[in-house]
Design a protein that fits this description.
methyltransferase; Methyltransferase type 11; disordered C terminus; seven-stranded mixed sheet; Rossmann fold; single chain; alpha/beta; transferase; globular
């Protein structure tokens, strides 16, 4: 049975109740946040930038971004309202420099060329239409902007066992991309692949970083993709 957004919404709504206390926090999520934070520091240093975090969950990563990069303007997007509601105290603490928005990663509620960098960590395997999600991320990146996508590394035997056997047994027919497939998705969307790096450990993961060319022609996307307005963002805001 194909994996769909209804299933993803139900799963993440259920997981939101224990998300911040789960066993994956020390095994995968904390190392993932460190890897993304290091890349942001390398790319931007102390310069201001606009960041969109797709699949933000309860906001742990964007809270760290706000503390580490005080000049960054951050939008945190998640499909599941329950995740955003579980992070309500965090949103209140970090203030107006981070804006939580409920929205669909395959139909981003933002106008073209809005962000300097997009991050997406450990949620991409839940997206039923991964090619469309990547095209949407390309669309809202500024020319020269970066997409940093992190997900489980399944090309080696241990990662294959974790993600293609164990995770799919629990979560259903989710899809962790191989390195080759991820490169294909970036290229298909009009993004230049800059680097792919494997992070080893109990839960290995792959970081893929691409760039929207400065003179790129926008990749094809659905007619509805660019229709987002400030009103829709405000309506979805927590």
């Amino acid at each position: 049975m194909a994996y769909d957004k209804r299933q993803a919404t139900e799963e993440f709504t259920r997981w939101s109740r224990s998300y911040d206390r789960g066993v994956l926090q020390p095994l995968l999520f904390a190392p993932s946040r460190r890897a993304l934070g290091a890349r942001l520091a390398q790319r931007f240093g102390s310069k201001p930038f606009r960041l969109l975090d797709v699949g933000c969950g309860t906001g742990q990563f964007v809270a760290e971004v706000r503390d580490r990069f005080p000049h960054a303007e951050v939008v945190a997007l998640d499909l599941v309202r329950g995740m955003l509601e579980r992070g309500r105290e965090r949103w209140e603490r970090i203030g107006d420099r981070v804006r939580p928005v409920q929205g669909d990663g395959e139909r981003l509620p933002f106008v073209d060329q809005t962000f300097d960098v997009i991050t997406c960590a450990n949620s991409f395997h839940h997206y039923p239409h991964q090619d469309q999600a990547i095209r949407e991320m390309q669309r809202v990146l500024k020319p020269g902007g970066r997409l940093i996508l992190l997900d489980g590394y399944r090309d080696a035997p241990w990662g294959w066992f974790i993600y293609d056997v164990c995770v799919t047994a629990v979560e259903g027919a989710v899809l962790h991309c191989s390195r080759k497939r991820m490169r294909h998705l970036y290229h298909q969307a009009g993004l230049e692949m800059i680097e792919q790096r494997i992070h080893r450990g109990p839960a290995p993961f792959l970081v893929s970083e691409g760039r929207r060319p400065v003179s790129a022609i926008p990749a094809p996307h659905t007619a509805n993709a660019a229709r987002a307005t400030a009103e829709s963002q405000a309506r979805n805001r927590v």
